[in-house]
UniProtKB/TrEMBL annotation, chain A:
InterPro entries hit by this protein: Spore_Ger, UPF0353/GerABKA_families
Cellular component terms per the entry's GO annotation: membrane
Protein name from the UniProt record: Spore germination protein
Organism: Alicyclobacillus macrosporangiidus
Coiled coil, from the record: none
Keyword annotations: Membrane, Transmembrane, Transmembrane helix
Automatic annotation (TrEMBL), chain B:
Compartments, record wording: Membrane
Higher taxonomy: Bacteria, Bacillati, Bacillota, Bacilli, Bacillales
Natural source organism: Alicyclobacillus macrosporangiidus
Main location: membrane
Name of the protein this chain belongs to: Spore germination protein
Alphabetized UniProt keyword annotations: Germination, Membrane, Transmembrane, Transmembrane helix, Transport
Length: 477, 362
C-alpha cells in the first residue's frame, strides 16, 4: 500500500483533508485545510515543489531542505505519527519510503486583550489567549531568563491537549516541582478542554469547597508567581494559567497592589479583607443580633430594626435565606445572558425585586441593605472562585446562626479555620504564612509593606537553593 | 518550604499549653485565700513554671539522644518500658479528664453568657466537631489551627482586657504585703491546677526536637512562651483585682467575663467568647491529640479505632456531671492529684538523669 493511502486510512475521509500530488515527482502533499496557514502552504511548500518537478530526489530530506528553505522538517516512516502531526497543523509530504513532516500551522488566534475578570488600573493591559505559543511569548517577552524551564505534557487521548509546566529552575522548590510532575503524569482523561478540568485532577483535596490552585489570565501575575518560586501550568485552548502552590492570601492580592504606593495598596487590601468579612458574616450577624443578642447593638438601632420588621410574616432566617437565594439567582441569570443585557438585567432585577419584596411586606428594608452589602463584599474579592466559595459558605453559616445564635457563628468560623488548617496545596499549607509563623512573609499578606522592606522572596515556597537567592534582584546572574 | 514544626511554633505551642482553657476560672479561688497578696503565689507559680519548662526541655533533649522512637519523655528515658507505659497511660487519663473538664467549663460559660436553654450534649458534640476535623489532618493540621488562631486571639483578648481598665481602681491592689502568710501558703497547692499543661510538653516537645529544632532555640522559645503566658495570667489577675477588688473578685464565678461585661453596658461579654472559645478549642484539641498520640503509640491501632473511643470518652466525661460544681468537685482533684504525681516523677527523672551524668544533647 502506498504511503498516501496508509495515511488516508488513518484519517477518515473528512471534507477538509487535501491531497495535492506533485506532478512527475511521485510525491503527494497532504494537509488539513482548516488547520494550516494556506498562504504558507502555497508559497513555501506547493510553489517550490511544483517549480522543480523533474528533480527526483535521492536523499529526500536533503532535497526538500534545499528546495523548500524551511528549517522545520522531520522524517518518519510511521503513518500513525504522520496522521497525528497532520492533526497538529503540519503538512505531510508522502514519498515511497515514508513521510516528511512540515510545520505550517495556521490556526486563527485571538489577540491578547485585557482580561475581563481581572481588570487592572495601573498594571499591564494584556491577558492570556487560547494559544499556548502566544501565552509563552507573553511570558518570555517579560521574563528573559535562561533558567526558565518549560516542560511539555500532552493530555486527553482524543483531544491531545498540550500542557506546559513553567518554573524558574533556581527558585522553584524541587520537591514541589517533583510533586507537580508526578500529579500531571497521573492525569488520565479522554479529553481536556480547559484548565479547570486539569485543576480538578491535580488539586490536593477534591472534597473541599476552597480552590487550592490559583487561576489567572494575567501574564504579569504569572511572572510574579514564577519569581516567587511558584509554578505555572498553561493548558492549550485555555486563557487561564494555573499557579501552584496556592495559599489563601494569594486570592486577595491583585497586581495593582504592587503598582501603587504601599500605603494605598495596603489600604485596598484591608478594604478587601473587610469585604470578605462582610460577605461571610453580615447576614449571620444580622440574624444573631436581631434574634439572639440584641443587647450587642445600641438601643436606638434595635428599636429601629424592630420597627422595620413590623408586619413581616416570615421568620428572619427565611427572610435572609430567601434574599440571598434571590441574589444568587440574579447573578447566575446575569452570567448566562448576553453581556449587555445581563448587566442591566442584574441591576434592574436587583432593584425591582428588592423594592417589590419590601413593598409586598415579604422582607424588611434592612434585610435588603444587609444582602446588598453581602453581595458587594463578595464582588470586591478579586478571584472568582474564592468569591464564589465565600458566597456559598454564607448559607451553612446562616443555618448555624439561626440555631445557636452568635455562638453558632463563632463555632462555624472556628470549624472553617479547622478545615482550612487541614488543606495543603502541593505540600504548602493553605493558611501560610500565618500557619507557619513565617513572620517575614507577613508584610505581603493583609497589608503590603514598603517595597524596600519586601526584598526577600517569600519563605512560604522557598527551596534550599533559593535560600541563597532570597534577596529579590540581588541574586547572582 | 518553611517547616511547619519550627522554633516559633514551639513558643506559641508552649503559650497555649500553659494558658489552657483561657477562662481563668482559678482566679476566684486564689483571691479567696491570698486576697491582694495574690502576687506572691503567682510569683511562686512563675518560678515553678520556668523551672518545669526548662526541666522538660532538658529531658526532651536527653530522650531524643537515647531513644529516638518514643512518644513521651517517659518512654524515651525510663529503662523499664512497663513503667513508662504505665506512666503514659496515667498521663492519657489526665489528658482525657482535663479535656472533658475544660469542655464542660466552657459550655457552662456559654450557657451562662449566651445559650441558657441549649442542652449540654448538643453543645459538647458541636464543640467536638473541631478536633474531629483536625484529627484527620494529623498533627500538622492541628498545629496550623493553633498557630493561625494564636495572634488574632491574643490581640482581641488583650485589647478587651486593657479596655476593662477603664473603670479600674489601682488602690484595690493594696495592701501588697500579706496580712496572713498562712493564707498565702494555703494558696500554694492551687498551683497544681495550673500545671497539667506542662505534661503536654512531655508529648509535644519531642515532636519538635525530632523535626530538627535544636536544644538551644527550643530552650529560648519555651522560656518565651512560658513568660508570655504568665504575663497574660498576671494581666488577668490584675484586671480582676483593680476592677473588683479581692473580695468581690473572689465571689464571682467568671470574674474576667464580668469585668468585660461591666464595660459598655454589657455588650462585649458575648464578643469575649471569641478569644475564650478559641483558647478552649485549642486546649481541648491539644489534650485530646496528646492522648491520641499515646494511645496510637501503644496500641498500634488504626486511626479511626482510636479517635472514636477517645472522643466518646471525652463526650461522656463532659456530659456526666450534672453541674459545674460537680465538675470542679470530682475532676479537678483527679487532674491535680495525678498531674502532681506525674510532674513529681518528671522532676525525679530529671534529677536521676543529671545524677547519671546525662548525655550531651547539644
Amino acid at each position: 500500500m502506498k504511503p498516501t493511502q496508509q495515511l488516508m486510512q488513518q484519517l477518515h475521509d473528512a471534507y477538509d483533508i487535501v491531497v495535492r500530488p506533485i506532478p512527475s515527482s511521485g510525491l503527494d502533499v497532504v494537509f488539513i485545510s482548516t488547520m494550516v496557514d494556506l498562504t504558507r502552504v502555497e508559497e513555501r511548500l506547493l510553489g517550490p515543489l511544483t517549480r522543480n518537478p523533474s528533480k527526483r530526489p535521492g536523499n529526500i530530506e536533503r532535497w526538500l531542505r534545499d528546495t523548500l528553505q524551511l528549517g522545520e522538517l522531520r522524517l518518519t516512516r510511521d503513518a500513525r505519527e504522520a496522521a497525528l502531526k497532520l492533526l497538529d497543523g503540519h503538512a505531510v509530504i508522502c514519498f515511497p519510503k515514508g513521510y516528511v513532516l512540515v510545520n505550517v500551522q495556521g490556526l486563527q488566534r485571538r489577540l491578547p486583550e485585557e482580561p475581563a475578570a481581572e481588570m487592572s488600573i495601573r498594571g499591564p493591559r494584556d491577558g492570556f489567549t487560547e494559544s499556548l505559543d502566544t501565552n509563552v511569548s507573553l511570558i518570555r517577552s517579560r521574563l528573559r531568563d535562561r533558567r526558565l524551564v518549560i516542560q511539555t505534557f500532552e493530555f486527553g487521548q482524543r483531544t491531545r491537549t498540550k500542557v506546559l509546566l513553567l518554573y524558574l529552575e533556581d527558585l522553584a522548590n524541587p520537591n514541589i516541582v517533583h510533586e507537580a510532575v508526578q500529579r500531571l503524569r497521573r492525569v488520565q482523561v479522554d479529553g481536556l478542554l480547559d484548565s479547570g478540568g486539569l485543576e480538578q485532577w491535580i488539586e490536593d483535596n477534591p472534597w473541599s469547597p476552597y480552590p487550592q490552585i490559583q487561576s489567572t489570565e494575567r501574564p504579569d501575575k504569572t511572572i510574579s508567581a514564577l519569581l516567587e518560586g511558584r509554578l505555572a501550568i498553561l493548558v492549550g485552548g485555555s486563557p487561564f494559567a494555573l499557579l501552584v502552590p496556592t495559599v489563601m492570601v494569594s486570592f486577595f492580592q491583585t497586581s495593582d497592589d504592587y503598582s501603587q504606593r504601599w500605603i494605598s495598596g495596603s489600604a485596598i487590601r484591608i478594604v478587601r479583607i473587610f469585604a470578605l468579612a462582610l460577605s461571610v458574616f453580615s447576614p449571620s450577624l444580622y440574624i444573631a443580633f436581631t434574634m439572639y443578642n440584641p443587647e450587642l447593638l445600641p438601643t436606638n438601632l434595635v428599636i429601629q430594626l424592630a420597627a422595620t420588621r413590623e408586619g413581616i410574616p416570615l421568620p428572619i432566617v427565611f427572610e435572609a435565606a430567601f434574599m440571598e437565594f434571590m441574589v444568587e439567582l440574579l447573578r447566575e441569570a446575569g452570567n448566562r445572558m448576553p453581556q449587555q443585557m445581563g448587566q442591566s438585567f442584574t441591576v434592574v432585577g436587583g432593584l425591582v425585586i428588592g423594592d417589590i419584596a419590601v413593598q409586598a411586606g415579604i422582607v424588611s428594608p434592612m434585610m435588603v441593605v444587609v444582602v446588598g452589602l453581602t453581595a458587594l463584599g463578595a464582588f470586591a474579592i478579586p478571584n472568582y472562585e474564592a468569591a464564589f466559595v465565600t458566597r456559598m459558605i454564607r448559607f451553612p453559616m446562616l443555618m448555624a446562626t439561626s440555631v445557636f445564635g452568635i455562638m453558632g457563628t463563632l463555632v462555624f468560623a472556628l470549624l472553617l479555620v479547622a478545615h482550612l488548617s487541614t488543606l495543603k496545596s502541593f505540600g504548602v499549607p493553605y493558611l501560610s504564612p500565618f500557619a507557619q509563623l513565617a513572620y517575614v512573609d507577613w508584610l505581603d499578606t493583609l497589608v503590603k509593606g514598603p517595597t524596600q522592606w519586601s526584598v526577600l522572596r517569600p519563605a512560604t515556597y522557598w527551596s534550599p537553593r533559593a535560600w541563597q537567592l532570597r534577596r529579590r534582584g540581588g541574586w547572582r546572574g | 518550604m518553611l517547616k511547619q514544626r519550627n522554633a516559633n511554633a514551639v513558643a506559641v505551642l508552649t503559650f497555649e499549653l500553659i494558658i489552657g482553657s483561657g477562662m481563668f476560672e482559678w482566679i476566684p479561688a486564689w483571691l479567696g485565700r491570698a486576697r491582694t497578696a495574690v502576687w506572691i503565689p503567682l510569683m511562686v507559680y512563675v518560678a515553678v513554671a520556668v523551672a518545669l519548662s526548662q526541666i522538660m526541655v532538658y529531658l526532651v533533649c536527653q530522650g531524643r539522644v537515647r531513644r529516638a522512637q518514643a512518644v513521651t519523655v517517659f518512654d524515651a528515658l525510663l529503662p523499664q518500658q512497663r513503667v513508662a507505659e504505665a506512666l503514659n497511660v496515667l498521663m492519657l487519663l489526665v489528658f482525657l479528664v482535663n479535656a472533658a473538664m475544660v469542655l464542660r467549663m466552657a459550655i457552662h460559660l456559654i450557657k451562662y453568657v449566651a445559650l441558657p436553654d441549649t442542652p449540654v450534649l448538643v453543645l459538647v458534640v458541636l464543640g467536638m466537631l473541631i478536633p474531629l476535623q483536625l484529627f484527620f489532618g494529623g498533627f500538622d493540621a492541628l498545629l496550623r489551627y493553633e498557630l493561625a488562631l494564636f495572634w488574632p486571639t491574643v490581640i482581641i483578648g488583650v485589647l478587651m482586657l486593657l479596655l476593662c481598665l477603664e473603670v479600674s481602681d489601682v488602690a484595690n491592689l493594696l495592701p501588697l504585703w500579706p496580712i496572713s502568710w498562712r493564707a498565702v501558703a494555703c494558696t500554694l497547692p492551687e498551683i497544681l491546677y495550673l500545671l497539667p499543661g506542662f505534661l503536654l510538653a512531655a508529648v509535644y516537645l519531642p515532636v519538635f526536637h525530632a523535626a530538627g529544632v535544636e536544644a538551644q532555640p527550643m530552650r529560648g522559645m519555651v522560656l518565651g512562651g512560658v513568660l508570655a503566658a504568665v504575663a497574660l495570667q498576671l494581666l488577668n489577675v490584675a484586671v480582676v483585682v483593680v476592677d473588683f477588688g479581692p473580695f468581690e473578685g473572689a465571689a464571682l464565678n467568671w470574674p474576667i467575663v464580668e469585668a468585660v461585661r461591666m464595660q459598655h453596658g454589657g455588650r462585649w461579654a458575648v464578643l469575649f467568647l471569641l478569644p475564650v472559645l478559641s483558647a478552649v478549642s485549642s486546649a481541648v484539641n491539644l489534650y485530646l491529640y496528646a492522648g491520641y498520640r499515646i494511645a496510637v503509640f501503644h496500641t498500634r491501632a488504626r486511626r479511626i479505632w482510636v479517635i472514636g473511643p477517645l472522643m466518646a470518652a471525652v463526650i461522656a466525661l463532659s456530659v456526666i456531671p450534672e453541674s459545674f460544681e460537680q465538675v470542679s468537685r470530682y475532676y479537678a482533684p483527679v487532674v491535680e492529684g495525678m498531674g502532681g504525681v506525674l510532674l513529681g516523677i518528671v522532676i525525679g527523672l530529671w534529677m536521676w538523669t543529671v545524677w547519671k551524668g546525662g548525655v550531651h544533647a547539644g
